[in-house]
Amino acid sequence: MATLPSVNLVAVLGAAIASMVIGAIWYSPNMFGKKWMKLTMKMQMPKGASKKAIAQMKEQMQKSMMKGYALTFVTTLITAYVLAVLARLIGATTVMGGAEIGFLAWFGFVATNSLGGYIWENDPIDMYFLKAGFTLVSLVVMGAIVAFWI
């Protein structure tokens, strides 16, 4: 059985934090937060839902935010760790090399697999681009960080 290479855990933590900051900016009301909320409501609420039902859904979303942030941080740590392992295995030790790994991970796994929501679940194409765009930026930055700090 192959042994995973050691990686810089500080770099993994830094990359995960960077991704969370990117997410906070990306989904802020000044960037794509309003668009994301509108699309989410459209996807989850029945057509013609009352204002009260919409307000209740927004309230429920706010109540579950801390749990969502915590789980997202854990999954982001895992992603950063995997990117660091890939960078180590491939021998990427520069910002550009890490960014390329992040791009390839996005293109090969995220951009392609995320299309399923649009193809099979009738998600709006705008939601696909919004989420895929965030993930692209996040993976490229995380890849750059972990490769540079190897």
Give structural notes.
- By secondary structure, the chain is mainly alpha-helical.
- It has one domain (9-43, 52-148).
- Helix content is 79%, strand content 0%.
- It contains 7 helices and no strands.
- Helix 1 (9-26) runs antiparallel to helix 7 (125-148).
- The two termini are 23 Å apart.
- The model has no long low-confidence stretch (mean pLDDT 91).
The CA-CA distance between the termini, in Å, is 23 Å
Mean pLDDT: 91
In percent, how much strand structure appears in the residues?
under 5%
Number of domains: 1
What is the share of helical residues?
Answer: over 70%
Structural class category: mainly alpha
Helix-strand sequence: HHHHHHH
- Number of helical runs? 7
Q: How many extended strands?
A: 0
Q: Return residue spans where pLDDT drops below 50 for at least 5 consecutive residues.
A: none
Largest sheet: none
Shape field: elongated
- What is the gyration radius calculated from CA atoms? 18 Å
Main features:
single chain, mainly alpha, 0% strand
Q: Summary?
A:
Helices cover 79% and strands 0% of the residues.
Topology (SSEs and partners):
Blueprint (H helix, E strand, L loop, with lengths): L8 H18 L6 H12 L6 H13 L1 H26 L4 H19 L1 H7 L3 H24 L2
Helix pairs in contact: 1-4, 1-7, 4-7, 5-7
